[in-house]
Amino acid sequence: MLAALAHAREHSPKQRDFISLPPPVQEDEPESGIAFASGNWRRAVTDRRRPGMVARRHFEAMVFCYLAEELRTGDVAVLGSNEYADWGAHLLPWEECQPKLAAFCEKVGLPDTPAGFVARLKDAHLSAAAQLDAGYLDNADLVIDEGGVPTLKRRRGKGSDAEAERLAAEIERRMPERSLLSIVARTAHWLTWHRHFGPASGSDPKIKDKLGRYSLAVFTGGINIGPYEAAKHIAGVTARELSMVRNRHITLKKLNAAIADVVNAFAELDVVKAWGDGRTVAADGTQVDTYIDNLLAETSIRYGGFGGIAYHYISDTYVALFSRFIPCGVWEAVHLIEGLLANDSDIQPSTVHADTQGQNFPVFALATLFGFDLMPRIRNFKDLIFFRASEEIAYPHIDQLFGESGRNVIDWKLIDKHWIDLMQVAISISEGRLSSATLMRRLRSNSRKNRIYKAFREVGRSVRTVALLRYLADPVLRARVTAATNKVESYNGFSKWLGFGGVLADNDPEEQEKLIKFNTLLANLVVFHNALDISDIVRQLVAEGRQITADQLGQIAPYLRSHISRFGAYATDDLHRRPDPFDPLLKEVDFTNVDLAA
Fold it and tell me: Which of 59, 332, 382, 597 is deepest in the core (most CB within 10 A)?
């Protein structure tokens, strides 16, 4: 049985209990229960008025249910455990945070005092509420009933004009036929993204044909076929060579660097200006099949399959900034901020879109602390609580949104009091002392004793309310959110089309993550090459006398695939055929006034 050792100090970052595993207690001992410092457990342990084995089993089941939940929230920590240890011990001491505070706040665009931070949040809250109230009578889409429930009428999308549809059809018809392997090789010649790959040490085997072998590794990893299967279809390479390259020359860090290279080169293309400016990103997951017998595999109730989740961050320009592999059972918002912070490309978005799974109170708060404007598309927004910035203000038109007067008011004093805790956590994450995913896993609504959770929750209540008020007030914003989430859903389909190998065959979590990143790199290489081919075709059409606008191009996604061959025997002739230099400019189109409203 488990026994409590000691209670955490009152002034530690969290008020939690620590447990260890002593020798088991004998079955016939009267003190065979479990002693905990938590009040609920103490009452359960001391209530021994129900003798008998059935009552005892019921008690033990209840105790372990409490234990499991409090381990997840972090209200109980296991000494010596990585997963359930005291995450507060990883925080940078405040004395070390103070010298870094001003620079961190300047970088993320926040005031560096508690009063300034609270004022910033409160002003945004009051402003969003006042703006929605002032425009309510002219807001034809929004209806707030007597019970305070908001409803938005469906708006028709602006759609695509006939000329843009004809242009899209003509571009698709003229796209030159490509094989996936030739696309990988051509981009390697142009961008040298493969330079990031190589052996970990000087004693590892060297590769003479780096471009060829690394291109084959990305191609086979991206389509998700193993080295032995790939060797059957590719002449001149053995399974052993492919396996050695993928296992010993390519790591997660090196794949991230190669992906960032492609993203940076893509951002320099003129045609990209028709699709977005890089300031927004959409995050979403898609289910990926795996074998049953591995650590991350689970049945997904949401996606209806078995395996894990490929979680992608897709720029408004259609390119994938970052990807990772997470379990099905986790709330996706847990990993949202970590991927944004891990993005090393030149495209650094400030606005983040997601679906319902990409938000909760702590995530809204953490996004704010790192300067991100989290604006998700929340499915059940009408069922959520709208919090008041002040109980002293009543709004003529939208007051029922906030419920009864005096209720659901943000506790600004609590935020002010725990501002140091908030900044200590944020700076600790920025310094690499604490993973944001670890923090989000432990800050849960069931965490009753965690004062840091309460501070994050209070900030999140305000920030989420502001996001909802803005969403209800602005139809253009709603269109942008929808467009962004549609882009990431389109990318999910595109990446699955490329990864036609099927089930992730490797059961090692790190190798599973590598396969997701191989697929992301391959998808970005195809998107980059498609953008170049689209630019070439536009030049041809303009030379033939056709007028083409940036807005028309903006309605053509670079996820074209009908011109790409995926199957058959893969010829390696293209690996060493150097392509002509590409032209990133598209002077034939005016990009000065592009409509990026949706």
Answer: 332
